[in-house]
Amino acid sequence: MTANIIDSAREEAKIVEENARNRIKDACKRWINRDFNAIPGSLIEKAYPVETLNDGEGLELLAGGRYECPDCGIDSDEIFDEPTNRYRCECGWEGTFEELNHVGAEYAYPAGWGTLFNPSNSSDDDWLRDNAQEVAKVGFLVYDCDETGILLGIDGGGYDFYEAHWTPLYKLRGLRWHDTD
Ligand SMILES: [Zn+2]
How confident is the model at residue 1 (pLDDT cuts 50, 70, 90)? Predict the structure, then answer.
């Protein structure tokens, strides 16, 4: 009997949690559909060939993708030394985040996923630029150029982008549409 009550309470808590998650996901979808333009990566690649990236004239990669040891190329995640907040590589190189080699997109340029996302709202544009490093931490490549403003890329595919990237970004942005709608 007691076990049944506990079970049903657990079941109910699970449903409440599931509903909250769905509400956030729905609100997040509304945000993306309403406030982001889908731009083909191939168009960006034609306008800004990879060899012109970060040359100060066109497309600039502000944050995201792969960072590696400048001497041996090992992934930065593997050499991060948490206590000192520095990177210490087995090859002998040691340095700060800023000194790492920023490779950016690994799978394809400008991103593995063929669509880039461009905020249509200038407050989103400003916020994404100001918080580029944080935005990169939830899995985005953050590009910027004079012609379009911020372009977000996802260097991968075949999984749920809402779960992995967009919902964390929605939370990071501090949006609360799921509470008020
Ligand atoms: Zn190294």
Answer: low
Q: Which residues surround ligand 1, an ion (CB under 5 A)?
A: 69, 71-72, 89, 91, 93
Residues 173 and 128: their CA atoms lie apart, in Å, by 9
Q: How far is the CA of 113 from the centre of ligand 1 (A)?
A: 29
Domain-terminating residue out of 57, 82, 104: 104
117 and 36, same structural domain?
yes
pLDDT reading at 181 higher than 70: no
Of 15, 53, 28, residue with least CA distance to 138 = 28
In a domain, 2, yes or no: no
* Whole-number Å distance between alpha carbons of 76 and 82: 12
Please give the distance, rounded to the nearest whole angstrom, from the Cα atom of residue 101 to the centre of ligand 1. 11
Supply the pTM of this predicted model: 0.88
Same domain, 167 and 96: no
Q: Which domain holds residue 97?
A: 66-104
